[in-house]
Amino acid sequence: MTFQSYQEYFKTITTQEQTISPYDSEEYVGYVKMNEVRQNRWLKKGIIQTECIDAILSISEPQDWVIITEPWCGDAAQIIPFIIKSASYNSLIDVTIQLRDGDSEIEKYLTNGSKSIPILVVRTKDEELFHWGSRPKGAQQLVDELKNKQSGFEQIKEELQKWYNQDAGNAIQNELVDLLLGR
Description:
The chain is α+β, with helices and mostly antiparallel strands. Helix 1 (about 5-15) packs antiparallel against helix 2 and helix 3 runs parallel beside helix 7 (about 170-180). It has a four-stranded mixed sheet, with helices on one face. The protein is built from seven helices and four strands; from the N terminus they run H-H-H-E-H-E-E-E-H-H-H.
């Protein structure tokens, strides 16, 4: 699906009664509503770094960028806007969204055996260049530290949200630049 279709999917989940799990749960619909707000905020105010723009502009052959995600994913709401905004600088990049719990390639991109998302897969017509996910290294380090301290789910979510707000999309861009430039 296109990114526009993905955004429309948020509206479908939050405005129509759902019978498909997990969206038949008020809790998950709440996550989707919150993530829609967060995603739209970053789409509006997120700043793409000059180094990231330069790396994107250096792409000289068509690439397919596949994002595997779900609207309930809090990390995705913080990350996908920066991927979308970065890709928009080069018309050679075609971005598609695959829903993890639908017909996706997630089984090829497990993170420590789990279906963690979002995942970004970057390909040319001939080969896979790289894949990235499911969260920036600094965010993952924070989650690991909090889990080691046996912090609860709510505390982890709160601390992770603070991390994303302070980072303002810089870590995902830096990691994307390193991958694009082969560093």
